[in-house]
Amino acid sequence: MRSDTNSEKFSPGAAFAKQQDRTAAQGQRSSPVIQGMLGNALQRHRAGQLTEAARIYRQILAIDPYQTDSLICSG
Length: 75
What we know:
Layout: H1 12-26, H2 32-46, H3 50-63, H4 68-73
Helix pairs in contact: 1-2, 2-3
């Protein structure tokens, strides 16, 4: 049996903070429209409106199939 030394647990709050950092870093590469849509999706995701957030992530990926934050957050 394998024993992991890294016992950190997944934290949605920390994951979203990292996503926001990445989003800010990508801001110069992504269009303002996609950034606005992503901000909206992340707000809905945090609020537990997962169906609506997933719909927005899919819309973003229809525009930019390689948009990292949408790929990660949409699972």
